[in-house]
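ok so i was messing around last nite and threw this chain in just to see what happens. nothing serious, just curious
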Amino acid sequence: ADWECAVRAIHQASRSRKIYNVDEFRYGIERMNPARYLSSTYYEHWFDGICRILEEKGVINLADLDDRTDFFQK
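result:
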C-alpha cells in the first residue's frame, strides 16, 4: 500500500540522518502494546516504533501528528 512506502521512506530518511540506529528502531517496536502488536501488520509495527522514537527525541509532537493524520483522512 502507498502508506507502507511512506513509512519505509520515513524510516530511511530518519536512519540516514542518524536520528536513530537499528537497535533504537527495534527497541521502539518492542515497546509496542502486546495486544496491538499481535493484531497489526509489519509496517504498522514500524510506524508505531518510528513515531515513538521520533516523539521521544523531540523530532515530532504526537498531537501534531494526529492532527495531520486527521487532515489526510478527510
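not much to say yet. The helical segments are 2-16, 22-30, 34-38, 42-56, 62-73.
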